[in-house]
Design brief:
This protein has about 130 residues and is an alpha+beta fold. About 25% of the residues lie in helices and about 35% in strands.
Length: about 130
């Protein structure tokens, strides 16, 4: 079975590696994919851990986890990645995340900004 993030390898050899190592990814796209898988699994600890300290929504963690559990995740499409490579300090990933909610398909379309903090890729928020 493919990983939740859409990669053709299984979860244990893909996003689970990052979920277990505290989010130590090589690229911003890997972090984005692992965060999508964390939403699928409602892994709030990982979502908070990999969110940049300046924008981390600690007070919203329970609501985020509750919402992630309330929807049925369908698939992730990565549309574009800009920078975010091992030697970069920042990057963006544009994606569509499809899910079922209240009997209909919906999509989150986002261009996410990622930045390194303490040499780890972190999710900063929406790219401007």
């Amino acid at each position: 079975m493919s990983c939740y993030c859409g990669n053709k390898i299984d979860y244990q050899n893909c996003c689970e590696v990052f979920h277990k190592n505290g989010g130590k990814t090589e690229t911003a796209e890997q972090l984005m994919r692992s965060r999508y898988s964390a939403f699928v699994l409602a892994n709030g600890d990982y979502l908070m851990q990999t969110h940049h300290s300046s924008t981390r929504p600690i007070k919203e963690k329970k609501a985020i986890v509750d919402w992630a559990k309330s929807v049925q995740w369908i698939k992730l499409e990565v549309l574009e990645t800009t920078n975010g490579n091992p030697n970069d300090q920042k990057g963006t990933v544009t994606f569509n995340a499809y899910f079922y909610e209240h009997g209909k398909v919906d999509v989150i379309h986002e261009k996410s900004a990622f930045i390194k903090e303490n040499n780890y890729w972190t999710y900063l928020g929406l790219s401007k």
